Amino acid sequence: MRTQIAIIGAGPAGMFLAHLLRAGGIDAVALERRDRAYIEGRVRAGVLERTTTDLMARLGIAQRLRREGVIHTGTNLSCDGAMFRIDMADLTGSDGVTVYGQQEVMRDLFDHAEACGLEIVFEASDVVLHDIDTTPSVTWQANGRYFHLDCDFIVGCDGFHGIARGTMPQSATRSFERIYPFGWLGILADVPPANHELIYANHERGFALASMRSPTRSRYYLQCDVDEDIAAWPDERFWDELCLRLGPDVGRQLVRGPSFEKTVAPLRSFVIEPMRHGRLFLAGDAAHIVPPTGAKGMNLAVSDVIMLAEALGLFYHENDPGGIDGYSARALDRVWKVERFSWWFTSITHRFPTTCGFDRRMQMAELAYLRTSRAAQTSLAENYVGLPLN
Ligand code: APR
Ligand code: PHB
Fold first, then answer.
1. Is 285 in the pocket of ligand 1 (CB under 6 A)?
2. Is residue 355 over pLDDT 90?
């Protein structure tokens, strides 16, 4: 078998790339370890930047997004229960962001892939990359058979725990990492959200986030220990703690109900440089991780694959290698800015084990400055709605 681009992984990075390549007249095959239901079932963030919603429109997969996505023109910060709003639309001259779950995005990507016959191999096991420096190929097993695919380039879209990154020689790469000393305990519940927009809360007892999936489905998070025992968090304890951290004004609006999802996620910042070696490119979580504060993970994967698809288009249609040669530097320039924002937003809203009186006062001063300074709010807002593609 032969194709132009072998894509490893069919998460957001792999699927958006597959659609972009198809739209650009480039052949691709995506190899995915899991099945479609598993990927669609993974609960992830749900805040889309304009670049992401524009791409969905360009690909012709925005019908449901237009009907069900909810535009948020502002977001809220709270410090020990006192809340203030950042008017993102006014500050940036944009619409703001769209709240639409990543699970829904995946469903739209897969439905459209079926409709237009994109080649996705689900449940591909033992995927191995060969000869990434010369004449690349990929092998895998499925249904008890062994497959071999020759290609021009391989793109690792296989997430943080994938195999593509590890096939780059260690001597040719450098990675940067920060592991945060806490996690997020998240729940989903079919109750109306406490507020019509999100609330990021810094409280002495730790961070809390009030988010949502729809007017009838809420998503809430509490900062917790990384090894927190979920069994120690029956719903009542979660709601009580959430009320405390969001403060009495929001607490009074909080509608409680049974949760149907409860998980702990670790927080990490990670970047590998460069994002290309030989004929292997990396995109999305395979190359970088951001902590979830600000919901940048999927949006960052989208900007990577837009840049990569442009670069591959130049290579195939204009015979110009400049795009693929510049891909890593171009993508990393934006990646580091988004890493900075996610790290900063995490730093000012969470309680760190080492937080002393001085650190806490610094956080409070930072939030007090944000409350009143249009310049500080504009900086937050332009990052939150999404930096332009460089
Ligand atoms: N072979 C084939 N597929 C693999 C392999 C492998 N060895 N290892 C991982 N995969 C698949 C995973 O099953 C997953 O479906 O690669 C996909 C990677 O998807 P994500 O982890 O979602 O990564 P990415 O597409 O970069 O997503 C970026 O969306 O899901 C969020 O947290 C993620 O915010 C991040 C963003
Ligand atoms: C979510 O809804 O899951 C969500 C929203 C905003 C974030 C992170 C997660 O910053």
1. yes
2. no
Q: How far is the centre of ligand 2, averaged over its atoms, from the C-alpha of 350 (Å)? A: 15
Ligand 1 atom at minimal distance to the Cα of residue 290: 34
Q: Which atom of ligand 1 is nearest to the CA of 301?
A: 28
For range 357-371, the mean pLDDT = 96
Question: Would you please indicate which residues are annotated as catalytic (active-site) residues?
Answer: 72, 200, 292, 296, 384
Please tell me the class of the 5-47+100-177+268-349 domain: alpha beta
According to the model, what pLDDT value does residue 390 have? 86
Q: Mean pLDDT of all residues in the chain?
A: 97
Provide, rounded to the nearest whole percent, the portion of the chain with pLDDT above 70. 100
Percent of the chain with pLDDT over 90: 98
219, 194 Cβ separation under 8 angstroms: no
Task: Give the residue extent of every domain in the chain.
Answer: 5-47+100-177+268-349
From 158, 161, 272, 293, mutation site for ligand 1 pocket: most ligand atoms within 8 A of C-beta: 158
- Atom 9 (ligand 2): residue with closest C-alpha? 45
Nearest Cα to 268, choosing from 294, 290, 295, 301?
290
**Which atom of ligand 1 lies nearest, measured to the CA of 297?**
34
**Neighbouring C-alpha atoms within 13 Å toward the C-beta of 37:** 0
Tell me the chain's radius of gyration from C-alpha atoms.
21
Q: Residue 118 — pLDDT band, cuts 50, 70, 90?
A: very high
- Ligand 2 pocket (Cβ < 6 Å) reads 45-47, 198, 209, 211, 219, 292-295
Instruction: Note the pTM of the prediction, 2 decimals.
Output: 0.98
What pLDDT sits at residue 30? 98
